[in-house]
Design goal:
By secondary structure, the protein is mainly alpha-helical. Helix content is 81%, strand content 0%. The chain has 2 domains: 378 residues, MFS general substrate transporter like domains (Growth Hormone, Chain: A, Up-down Bundle); 42 residues. Helix 9 packs across helix 10. It is globular and about 65 Å long. The N and C termini lie far apart (51 Å). This is Major facilitator superfamily (MFS) profile domain-containing protein. It is found in: Membrane. Its main location: membrane.
Amino acid sequence: MLAVVVSATSSGMAMGYPAVLLPQLKSNDSILYTDEEMGSWIASIVTGSMPIGSLISGFMIDKIGRRVTMHIQCGVVILGWLLAGVAQNHATMLTGRFVSGVASGLGMVAGQVYNAEVSSPKARGILSSAPFVSYAVGILLVYALGAVCDWRLVAGLSTIPPFIAIAMLFFYPESHVWLIRKGKIEKARAACVWFRASKTEKAGKEVEDLIARFSNEKLENYSWRCIFEPYCLKPLIISIIFNLLQTLSGVYVVVFYAADIIAEMGTQQLEVSEMLIAVLTALIRMIFSFVSCVLLHYMTRRRLGLLSAVTTSLFSFILGICVYLGVSSYFMPICLFLYVAANTVGLLVLPGVMIGELFPARIRGVAGGLSYTLFSISIFGVAKIYPFLKRTLRIYGLFSLFGVSSLLLCLWIYLTLPETKNKTLHEVEDYFMEESILWTNRKQRDRRRCDNADALMK
């Protein structure tokens, strides 16, 4: 939904803000001079506070609804930007960044769950990945603004998207899935008709199917107990390990420290500013976010994930070798652009798709919040220790680490990630009722079932 997309733009701007903020704060004439240690805190504290928003969001979207939670999130993100924009000391800046992180955590879970629940199976992939397109747009926008504007003005302009999202959300109904679970059947029917473009018969059948499915569930005090059931725990494990390996593949490190990484790669001889190359990486990220939406419509989730992981690994190793050998031609930024394109087209968007598609409806809020909480902690950890990794591994070692992590992620996708394209959320839930967590084992078991059925028919 468009309101979710607009809201996600501001989260992308918050993630990309350090790349333009820190070079300005580190200049000798800065009124808020920042050294490398404080800079790492300013960059990473957003992801450090995201888990708070994610955990709160998991309960809020189940208690007060998906749409109301998104309204609150927009107000919180505006507060974060205002605090950062008026900061006269590091404490205020860190507070503003902390608040922005809480807001990002709130919005990510609520937006992904809302999009997944209100969309049809065929459109779900596109709608689930759409917030990541606007996320990439936000990164590009803040990079572009930072190249020509003072950091305070950038913070002020960054409040515009959440204000727009607040206005838009008034025109959207609440998720019909949530309304049914709260017993508001007539409102759910009206909402479903709205989401299905006035196709009353189709919407009516969908609502009746949901009512039948939820009729035997005991909702009170169910979520936390249910999360330890195998059919809930398996998708959670798949998501957590995917997110950890995705973080170690460098997706967000390049977002936070784009200008610094480019400078460390030895591109000074090219007579092109690091900030310009950083803006171009953000442009590539935005373009390939759009490409990922299209590919999710035509390709299976597994194939897209495998393609993205393999190519990310390839260009990570190429960049590591080039930096080690001291290559200083235009080949370096081109490889960096290809690396960004490779991880954007699949690895960047799939965590959000998984939040909306893998978890059972009864714990979607809590499980999504927990998954994104652990995801945010891993991003925070990597962002915070980047200066240490840069000193110990050097940039070529860092890209080698990205390459190894991408290869491990490729293996994890191949072994465990189920295919959810064109599947209803009910079918995905039923899928995890089976015993094994390995996708490969299930395919073999399905083939054995078919062979047994053919033998019985003969």
